[in-house]
Design goal:
Number of domains: 1
Distance between the termini: 45 Å
Oligomer: single chain
CATH topology: Carbamate kinase
CATH architecture: 3-Layer(aba) Sandwich
Radius of gyration: 18 Å
CATH superfamily: Acetylglutamate kinase-like
Shape: globular
Structural class: alpha/beta
Number of helices: 9
Length: about 280
């Protein structure tokens, strides 16, 4: 194969980033349509393995809302949401755990292993990785939780031995009960705890807009103060709120850079990490 100058230039452009991030931890929140499309799933797995092969230490945190809803319907239970949060009674929590810690988690692990790396699937219940308590709210959502503690020793051990941790958003309570916790929030908490160099949130849109839907108002860089103000003013809403909150949590915990990228674009991870311009919204302190 004859490489073009453009292809060689791309490789050269990536070199300083490979050098800068070699040996550094990068936490990736994986979700949205990138988890549904089989080609995109395969591409994400390859990107993560490439990151691993050039010396980076990726940690993958995933959700799986569509998979949960699908399994619920198959079992004759209709999904119910309040303000975007899934009402999670005891039976639903069992389904959540089956879908996330079982099928979805092990499917991602298999894809990464198939690309030549060594991935290990975890839930928050493994080694008490994610401890949670019942989330507060005006409506009782059942076993919906909020993170109270991250015990990251198992993650550090796995990374040191060359494994890629793949974490589902099931947490454990102090009495051994399971909790369904927002995967975005978990990613932010873990990134802060492991002193990650980057947190990358993969979603279904290019990033943050000053006026949603108006491409001319796309924001490539944003600080935490302005991001919090946009949430208060309702300029950031719906599913983007927990993603921005996760970025703020990570930044306050010492993570230097956080990014929100469109996971439906092929190789968005590599474009964000290894190019000068990146492709999403970067949130900084």
């Amino acid at each position: 194969m004859n490489y073009t100058r453009e292809e060689a230039g791309i490789l050269v452009q990536a070199l300083p980033y490979i050098q800068a991030y070699s040996g550094k931890i990068v936490v990736i929140k994986y979700g949205g349509n990138a988890m549904i499309d089989e080609n995109l799933k395969q591409g994400v797995a390859r990107d993560i393995v490439l990151m691993h092969c050039v010396g980076m230490k990726p940690i993958l945190v995933h959700g799986g809302g569509p998979e949960i809803s699908s399994l619920m319907k198959k079992m004759g239970k209709e999904p119910e949401f309040v303000n975007g949060l899934r009402v999670t009674d005891a039976e639903t929590m069992e389904i959540v755990e089956m879908a996330l810690a079982g099928k979805t988690n092990k499917g991602i692990v298999s894809l990464i292993n198939g690309e030549g790396a060594k991935a290990v699937g975890l839930s928050g219940k493994d080694a008490n990785l994610i401890v949670a308590e019942k989330a507060d709210g005006e409506v009782d959502l059942g076993f919906v939780g909020k993170v109270t503690e991250i015990n990251a020793d198992i993650l550090i051990d796995l990374l040191q031995h060359g494994y890629i941790p793949v974490i589902s958003s099931v947490a454990i309570g102090i009495n051994g009960e399971s909790f369904n916790v927002n995967a975005d929030h978990i990613a932010g908490e873990i990134a802060a705890k492991v002193c990650a160099e980057k947190l990358i949130m993969m979603t279904d849109v290019p990033g943050i807009y000053g006026s949603y839907g108006d491409e001319s108002t796309f924001i490539s860089e944003l600080n935490t103060s302005d991001a919090s103000k946009m949430i208060r003013e309702g300029k950031i809403g719906s599913g983007m709120i927990p993603k921005v909150e996760a970025c703020i949590t990570a930044l306050k915990g010492g993570v230097p850079r956080t990014h929100i990228v469109d996971g439906t674009k092929p190789h968005s991870l590599l474009m964000e990490i290894f190019t000068d311009t990146g492709i999403g919204t970067m949130i900084m302190q």
